[in-house]
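User: Modeling request: complex.
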Amino acid sequence: MIGEKSSLASKNYKLTEEEVKHVARLSNLSLNSQEIKKFQKQLSEVLNYIDFLKKVKTKKVEPTSQVTGLENVFRPDKPGLSLSPEEVLKNAPKKNQNLFMIKAIFKK
Amino acid sequence: MKINQLTISEAQKGLIEKKFSSLELVKSCLEEIKRKNPEINAFITICEEEALSQAQEIEMRISKHKDIKSLFNEYPLLGIPIAVKDNFSTQGIKTTAGSKVLANYIPVYDATVVKKLKEAGAIIIGKTNMDAWAHGSSGENSDFGPTRNPFNKEYVPGGSSSGSAAAVASHMALAATGTDTGGSIRLPASFCGLVGLKPTYGRVSRYGIVAMASSLDAIGHLTKNVADAAKILKITAGQDGFDATMPPANVPDYEKDLKKEIKGLKLGVPKEYFGFGLNKKIREMINKIIVQLDKLGVKVTTVSLPHSQYALATYYIIQPSEVSSNLARYDGIRYGFNRQNFGDEAKRRIMLGTYTLSSGYYEAYYLKAMQVRTLIKKDFEEVFKKVDVLVTPVSPNLPFKIGEKVTNPLEMYLSDIFTVTANLAGIPALALPVGMINNLPVGMQILGPQFGEELLFKVGSKIEEISQNHLTN
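Assistant: Request completed. Predicted assembly structure:
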């Protein structure tokens, strides 16, 4: 049955603080020490819950990534209406002429 | 009855018969917004000026036109005030997706759905509050404060289309748009006593809508009745050339079969959805409806969807994985603010998805979930060989109190346990109100095969009739 308590948390899986920091770094998010502790607990709980998928036998089962079965959707390569450079840059916090301004990536 | 309390069809009749004007209709919605929104917090942006000037323009058009009826045939939503969830791009109108990251973002183009609604004559009355990035089941994850349930302000309206549901339920708009990735239209519809449609994956264009989880996102709407839901889908459905995931399926006249008989129809009751996690009173209420349908000549059978128990876990791998990928684009360079502005729920999902997609875990989590998704989809395909539609509850429980689940994300995720399956299988689902328990609305859900929306509307309007008779008796 859906929603049975028994289907929750099959084993006690716990992310380490280091793992949380590593995932945050991969995600381009910076967390303070309080956040690390909080997310360590919350993410571990969710990982414990999703862990019970391991019980399902999926050998030889094809994965589904597109539910309606569409494959290789093409369209004619014709240029159509598009936004003007002014419109594209309208929301940019920093711009210079027709360019987005960002911090320099390489040092001189 | 005030004119803002009408359904779309009723309002249209009033406009055609000149019982009131479109300007009066817009004004009555705006007055309701001014009166109730400070407490309900259904809107992030109110488009007062734009709506009023659009209504005046429509007045002119109506007064100049000789054959009003043909004008309304051509513009099926002419002069109808509609609220738009704040993750739909609206040209020149701020679009935040409920997040501070986009607090200053003003799109330079309209989402396809917005464009189609405008072309049908609809008036955008405002942009509705929502869980940031559509991540949530209660509306409490909005960076602009929670929305309150109009039936009891201590309670959540359901999410993530929280503001859309609250706006329609409190008559600030006649209908509202929504997005549904795991139940975000159906849960708030159920909690606010409304009809909520999650169409088949790819039935309605996703173009111009802030993406949450791209293989699951469905674009729908919340209305006061089933007929209005059919009317809007007729306008929003169909390919636009900007969303490559839309199959070239014809758009039927969804309003055509609404009143047709349903005698002989085969209805399945999936036993997994009526287990002991379900509130007893909700179960009794839905069972009563099933008994009534049986009396009308519907063939009711109990069926099984054996992989349902794995749906929520599957969803909580696929969805955060796709979220982490979609939210990676927010860098604050081209528009919006930087990543420090993400709220807690977005951070949790980005990290969870990054983890399940990361090297060494991809196969154990993401690939596994995509395989289980196949099994869940096959369950439905098998069952739809035997029955035409399925009925289930929308939520295992009644609306909960504001604050009740905010500190326990997993508990919050469990609210979507009956709704995520439709997104995983890509099938359409219609939530509709069937009664009240403890003065809070209760909804039920009808599920059909892919592109079977017509069938859902037909069964839905019959259930609507049954439950209205219940209420008046």
